[in-house]
Amino acid sequence: MASTEVLTDRGAVEEALAEFDRIGRFSFLEKYGFGEAREYFLVTETGNYDSKAIFAAAYARQHGVLLTSDDFSGGKQGAAQWLANLGYTIEGLESKEGRLTFDAFEAAMDAFRLAVENITAARAFVGSRDFVSFYLPPSRQYIAMIPRGGTRPTAWINKGYVWFRNEDGTQDSIAFPYNKLRDGSRNSRQRRREEAERRVCPNPGCGMVLPLSGVCDYC
Known about the structure:
The protein has helices spanning 10-23, 25-32, 51-63, 79-85, 105-112, 116-127, 188-198; strands at 41-44, 47-50, 89-91, 100-102, 131-136, 143-147, 155-157, 161-165, 171-175. It has 219 residues and is of the alpha+beta class.
């Protein structure tokens, strides 16, 4: 049985997340022998990840042993909490303390500071569904949206995409125009690193981040 001390390598978790992005959710779950998560998800700016499967994949990288679903718990006393202990945001573990709750999406979006390029797409998605309550968790990493008649969120807006559950229980995501989830076949983390490198002044000895004009203010 896994314990809170056995997974200590954030690098192993990052490698598992990168593989998830690369091969896709269902291929990842099939490879490691896990079903779809129903409550606990590791949330980053690039996606929502099934926490129990991510934990198992990271554990295998650190220790060379592939755990099965029966080997450990996936909830508050298991994978979700252990990943949270490594500094990750886990949807389902968030305390109500520190939440910002709103009755209107526009107010939630203003507090979240969604990129201007993504506002139209976000409004279109919310307008197509019947949400009655919105909140930002203490981490402020997403907007959770609760449907009419529900008590738990069924959709989450992140910086570059919206992730949601359909009425039939399936899950899906829609990439926004800015900072979208994937760019071709490249991993989103690698893409962000490449973009950051392109914004650095190329002049020898400078290294300052370029402004939007592309002209260095110091050279």
